[in-house]
Each structure stands twice: as structure tokens, then as C-alpha cells.
């Protein structure tokens, strides 16, 4: 699995914790987050990273900002992205099993680094269940394919 991780200025600490986790888990990753001496705009980080997942360069992404909301809104504008803003382990597990989410958004100002790390770990370890969920995800893909 190849993972792209990105963050704005409000996600620096959780970004570092998640990078440590990816290294411990032996997961190949690229960090495209900001160097962040000053404040930046989260769409400038979320949209290019999401496109690199949608085009197949990466399997999954972890996007971090202050609340996780901006990153998730932006990521979900990219066709083929199913970004889940998730701050608990139950949702992290279920969004992989049922939604096959390919991006996890985390909000550093909402959860602390220890919980963020555990949420990310569960999300990375959990497989999609397929079956009835495949059909439901297919309906989202069909909608995305329609002309606006
Ligand atoms: C930055 O202040 C903050 O707005 C951003 O990190 C994010 O929380 C937006 O949704």
C-alpha cells in the first residue's frame, strides 16, 4: 500500500505522529504537507494529493488540518475520492469496512495526537468488506460519472 499524507499549518503535530506510525507499520508514504512557517490554504494541499490518489499513484491518503473539515470537503470534490472525517476508532473501522474510504481526514485541534494515531492505525489496518457495500459505493461512482 502506498499512502500520501498532507497537512496545512494546523496539522503539523498529528502529521508527524502519523508519519512515525507509517514508518513503524512499514508502509510506503510521501508527505506533501506544508513546511508551514506561516498560514496556508488547505485546498492547495488537499486537492493535488486527492488527485494523485484518484489517478492511481497512491492507494490511500491521510489529510490533516485544524478540524479535518476543510480537508475532507476539498478531497471529496475529486472524483473517485471517498474521504472520511473520523475521530473515533469505531468509525475508522466501519468507514473502511463499509465505505472503502480512500482518504482519512483528521482534525488536530479536535483530537490529540495519541487518539489520532490510534484512529489512523485502525483505518490503515482495516480491509473493505465488499459484498452489499460494493453496490452502494457503485451508486456514488455512477452519480459522479453523470454530467453536471
Ligand atoms: C486553519 O486555521 C483552519 O481553518 C484549517 O486548518 C481547517 O481547520 C479548515 O477546515
Automatic annotation (TrEMBL):
Q: Name one GO molecular function term.
A: ribose-5-phosphate isomerase activity
GO terms for biological process, alphabetical: carbohydrate metabolic process
Top EC class of this enzyme: isomerase
- EC? 5.3.1.6
Q: Which UniProt keywords apply?
A: Isomerase
Q: Which domain of life is it from?
A: Bacteria
| Amino acids binding D-ribulose 5-phosphate | 8-9, 66-70, 99, 109, 132, 136
Keyword Acetylation attributed:
no
**Coiled-coil stretches:** none
Q: Where is the active site?
A: 65 (proton acceptor), 98 (proton donor)
The entry's family comment says: Belongs to the LacAB/RpiB family.
Question: NCBIfam families in the record, alphabetically?
Answer: PRK05571.1 (NF004051), rpiB (TIGR01120), rpiB_lacA_lacB (TIGR00689)
> What protein is this chain from?
Ribose 5-phosphate isomerase B
Query: Gene encoding this polypeptide?
Result: rpiB
Amino acid at each position: 500500500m502506498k499512502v500520501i499524507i498532507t497537512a496545512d499549518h494546523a496539522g503539523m503535530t498529528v502529521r508527524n505522529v502519523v508519519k512515525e506510525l507509517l514508518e513503524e507499520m512499514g508502509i510506503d508514504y510521501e508527505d506533501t504537507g506544508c513546511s508551514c512557517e506561516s498560514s496556508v490554504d488547505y485546498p492547495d494541499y488537499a486537492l493535488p494529493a486527492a488527485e494523485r490518489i484518484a489517478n492511481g499513484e497512491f492507494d490511500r491518503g491521510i489529510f490533516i488540518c485544524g478540524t479535518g473539515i476543510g480537508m475532507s470537503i476539498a478531497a471529496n470534490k475529486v472524483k473517485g475520492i471517498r474521504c472520511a472525517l473520523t475521530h473515533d476508532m469505531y468509525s475508522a473501522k466501519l468507514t473502511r469496512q463499509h465505505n472503502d474510504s480512500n482518504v482519512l481526514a483528521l482534525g488536530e485541534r479536535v483530537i490529540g495526537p495519541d487518539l489520532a494515531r490510534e484512529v489512523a492505525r485502525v483505518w490503515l489496518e482495516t480491509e473493505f468488506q465488499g459484498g452489499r457495500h460494493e453496490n452502494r459505493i457503485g451508486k456514488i461512482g455512477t452519480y459522479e460519472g453523470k454530467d453536471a
